[in-house]
């Protein structure tokens, strides 16, 4: 952990840059997998299953990934994840060039492996940042950590779609190359051997692990309220995403317009990550979280009022910027308050609840928009978000500098 600012920390720069490159490849194939399944099999249903397969691990493996990050060497886990992702990308490439039998099942398996590697890597990366970065530099480090996703999302979607247009196999070869780059950066990180974790010798059962994670999250007032309200606000955002797509489709705009409009959230996220650390230091996670709920409430109003792409795109820019700022603030709060030896399980529980809400949000959105028009649905979401803002402003105040005690 050397000086000259966060970019003077060689280990962090290697970790962050390697994963940022790998994430671009991953988000590129998130588009390419369902497109390839549809092109090869002609089945839209199978394309949907492939898309589901790459997302499913985020719902089911957050707790196991947290356990792994708590108990085992984090760099070893990340190297294993990148190796598995590399194998999956190469498998998808072989499906194309060798015209293998049962391509749909092979693509589902490859997508599932990549999604699983993504979840386990992300949890270990979060924990490892605390291992290699001084406390004074953590706000900046976690700002860069959160910036990885919107940057990779914007670049990966664009590059993935363009690469697929060149040839079906190109996104998967590019994905494999990014995994190799990340493996090289991970191998170059110089860290001391992992310290034995206090609970490594007595592994918990799954129910016990869930109880541990739940206790850590729900015993701290702000962690409890922010987790529940974040899950509910994620449902609202998922409804608004589908609402945006339906509005653009019904207005007979080109398909790419939806990508540009929703991609504005990623651009906003990049801007938000640049100012998040300073805001977190000045105002603290709790204040920023409450403000974010009110900001989202206001930003949803133009979405409900107008389907015009410029109006909706501007709103999504703001939604993305606010989202990254508050995500960084919440990450800093969790890392500061949760003991190191149980950080993975606690964050895994939070992620399981909030990511699970994303899946429910997509399902609820379909039903709402089949019954109500987009304007009515938009105003419903404004109302719900305002209610969440009121709840967030009146519940879950945590005392300053109190560490959550592990059971």
TrEMBL record:
InterPro entries: Bacilysin_exporter_BacE_put (IPR022324), MFS (IPR011701), MFS_dom (IPR020846), MFS_trans_sf (IPR036259). Keywords: Cell membrane, Membrane, Transmembrane, Transmembrane helix. One of its GO terms (cellular component) is plasma membrane. It comes from the Bacteria. The chain crosses the membrane at residues 12-29, 77-98, 104-129, 228-248, 254-279, 291-308, 314-335, 347-370, 376-398. GO terms for molecular function: transmembrane transporter activity. It is found in: Cell membrane. This is MFS transporter. It comes from Nocardia speluncae. The lineage of its organism: Bacteria, Bacillati, Actinomycetota, Actinomycetes, Mycobacteriales.
């Amino acid at each position: 952990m050397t000086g000259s600012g966060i970019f003077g920390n060689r280990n962090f720069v290697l970790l962050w840059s390697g994963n940022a490159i790998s994430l671009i490849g991953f988000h590129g194939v998130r588009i390419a997998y369902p497109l390839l399944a549809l092109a090869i099999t002609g089945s839209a249903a199978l394309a949907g299953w492939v898309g589901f397969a790459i997302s499913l691990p985020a719902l089911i493996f957050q707790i196991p990934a947290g356990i792994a990050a708590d108990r085992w060497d984090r760099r070893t886990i990340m190297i294993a994840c990148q190796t598995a992702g590399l194998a999956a990308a190469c498998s998808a490439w072989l499906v194309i060039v060798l015209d293998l039998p049962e391509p749909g099942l092979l693509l589902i398996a490859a997508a599932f492996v990549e999604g699983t590697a993504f979840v386990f890597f992300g949890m270990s990366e979060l924990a490892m940042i605390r291992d290699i970065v001084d406390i004074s530099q953590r706000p900046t480090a976690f700002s860069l950590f959160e910036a990885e996703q919107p940057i990779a999302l914007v670049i990966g979607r664009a590059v993935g779609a363009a690469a697929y247009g060149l040839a079906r196999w190109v996104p998967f070869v590019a994905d494999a190359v990014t995994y190799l780059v990340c493996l090289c950066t991970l191998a170059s990180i110089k860290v001391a051997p992992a310290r034995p974790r206090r609970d490594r010798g007595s592994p918990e059962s799954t129910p016990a692990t869930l109880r541990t994670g739940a206790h850590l999250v729900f015993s701290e007032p702000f962690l409890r309220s922010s987790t529940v309200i974040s899950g509910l606000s994620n449902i609202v955002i998922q409804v608004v995403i589908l609402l945006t797509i339906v509005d653009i489709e019904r207005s007979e705009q080109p398909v790419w317009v939806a990508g540009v409009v929703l991609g504005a959230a990623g651009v906003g996220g990049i801007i938000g990550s640049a100012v998040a650390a300073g805001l977190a230091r000045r105002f603290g996670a709790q204040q920023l979280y409450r403000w974010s709920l009110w900001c989202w409430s206001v930003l949803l109003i133009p979405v409900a009022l107008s389907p015009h792409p410029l109006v909706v795109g501007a709103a999504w820019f703001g939604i993305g910027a606010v989202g990254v700022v508050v995500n960084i603030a919440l990450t800093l709060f969790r890392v500061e308050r949760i003991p190191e030896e149980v950080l993975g399980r606690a964050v895994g529980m939070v992620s399981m609840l909030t990511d699970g809400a994303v899946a429910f949000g997509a399902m609820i959105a379909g039903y709402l928009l089949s019954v109500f028009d987009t304007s009515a649905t938009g105003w419903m979401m404004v109302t719900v978000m305002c209610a969440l803002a009121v709840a967030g402003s009146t519940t879950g105040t945590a005392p300053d500098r109190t560490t959550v005690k592990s059971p």
